[in-house]
Amino acid sequence: MARESGIISWKELNPGTAITEPGNAAELKTGDWRSMHPETDRGKCIKCGQCYIFCPDMVYAKDEEGYYVQNYYWCKGCGICARECPVAAIKMIEEVD
Amino acid sequence: MSERVGIEVSLAVAEAVGLCDVDVVAAYPITPQTHIVEHLSELVAEGRLDAEFIPVESEHSAMSACVGSSAAGARTFTSTSSQGYALMSEVCFIASTLRLPIVMAVANRALSAPISIWNDHADLMFARDSGWIQLVATSGQQAVDLSVMAFRIAEDKRVSLPVQVNLDGFIMSHVIEPLFLPDAEEIKRFLPPFQPLLRLDPARPITIGPVGMPDVYTEARKAHDEVLKASKAVILEVFDEFAKQFGRRYELIETYRVEDADTIIVAMGSISQTASTAVDAMREKGLRVGMASICLFRPFPAAELAGVIGRAKNLVLLDRATVFAGGEISGPVALEVKSALFDRGLSPKVANFLVGLGGRDVTQQNFEEMVERVVTAKNGDLPPYEFINVRE
Ligand code: SF4
Ligand code: SF4
């Protein structure tokens, strides 16, 4: 129901805008709010997973090598991951365009 | 067959709600509505009604409990008046856009200040933009019958909206009238079991009442507006079904001697009865006067009203609530009526009166004065509204 960026006709809304598919917040693109995005320096990263734990939008997922990779569809650019990384491996980079 | 009994209208409304096999009643007592919920609590306590009676600590909690129970799929009823409505209003606006078919009796009472427990339509007007269906009773019998029909209208899948049944406080709520109370079997045939559009159910979780970002809020309001518009056809259908089964027919606009009337009094609620008596008296004096009574305030039946009053030369529009708009526009009912006429290119001579505020009696004499005022005034001489019966 909550398609990407919620573009939906009033006729298709559930009664009372109820959400009938649990967990559909995953479809909501929070990534288009940000003005900065995090980038990880793998040379510094110690694979501790703090970024994964602290990110409020579940942006990070572990890859086969044990690094935590961002999915920018949800990253709203809050900078919490960069702030919490114990070895300052994450830098916030300004969005250009 | 139902029988005619002498009963206080409040108790009769409570009996009717009980016969509708309501599942949850959450309410807080407030004059002049109290007898309704008091009697429902008695019915539950005596085991005559198998329902959950939630004695909440305020009207805000009452409507909140109603929202929860209706969302869980329970047939839900509450009742309030005046300040009680004011306190619960926040949640009323939520109940309607969430499409929860709660039924609420409002024993109409003035809003403070000054503190007044007496009747006028300030609460009805306060609820005007809340997105509820607003039915207005002109008699005790109608209050009872509308209470039954309200559940069927509210719960109809094409509607699924909350419904207010307005009855004038004291003047109607506390009067003992000879009334037909429908019996349980008849109501069972008339009112199918409540089948909600959506329901809170742990086995199939859903979210009711999420945030609406700017990209969905307009669509949500539009959807609500459309369903309120569409409810008029369902209301007419339910009135018709009720007439077939119970033999009592109601109209969106009830009329009295309007066919050849030059002057029509437009009223709402129990005052219509005094207006009809005044119409008879004026007719005897040779004045061609009639009366139209608005029985549905939301959605507003503009087409039906214009059809009834459109040919009259003079209109007396009654408002039973004060309007604080600066004096250059009319009272709330008159605004609706004028808008309905303007949109159809009709412009009769109109006088708008604020009457019966905070329990002030409106007499037959007052009606005669109001009719005389509109008949004798020159077009353009009449102010947007006038207080009647006010001491200078
Ligand atoms: S900037 Fe915020 S939202 Fe984006 S990955 Fe870091 S913590 Fe998550
Ligand atoms: S918090 Fe820093 S060090 Fe830890 S996994 Fe994330 S990027 Fe690597």
Quickly describe the structure:
The complex is a heterodimer of chains A (97) and B (392). With 97 residues, chain A is an alpha+beta fold.
Structure in words:
The complex is a heterodimer of chains A (97) and B (392). Chain A is an alpha+beta fold. Chain A has a single domain (25-94), classed as Alpha-Beta Plaits. Chain A is 10% helix and 16% strand. Chain A has 2 helices and 4 strands. Chain A has helices at residues 50-54, 80-84, and strands at residues 36-40, 60-62, 68-70, 90-94. In chain A, strand 2 and strand 3 (68-70) form a beta hairpin. The radius of gyration of chain A is 16 Å and the shape is elongated. The two termini of chain A are 30 Å apart. The mean pLDDT of chain A is 92. Chain B is globular, with a radius of gyration of 21 Å. Chain B folds into 2 domains: 4-246, 3-Layer(aba) Sandwich (Rossmann fold); 255-387, Rossmann fold (3-Layer(aba) Sandwich), CATH 3.40.50. Chain B starts with a strand and ends in a 5-residue tail after the last strand. Helices cover 41% and strands 19% of the residues of chain B. The model of chain B has no long low-confidence stretch (mean pLDDT 97). Chain B contains 12 helices and 15 strands. Chain B is of the alpha/beta class. In chain B, helix 1 (9-19) crosses helix 2 (34-45), helix 1 (9-19) runs parallel beside helix 6 (140-155) and helix 9 packs across helix 12 (364-376). Chain A binds chain B through residues 5-11, 13-20, 22, and chain B through 97-100, 160, 197-198, 205-210, 212-213, 215-216, 218-220, 222-223, 226. The structure holds iron/sulfur cluster (2 copies).
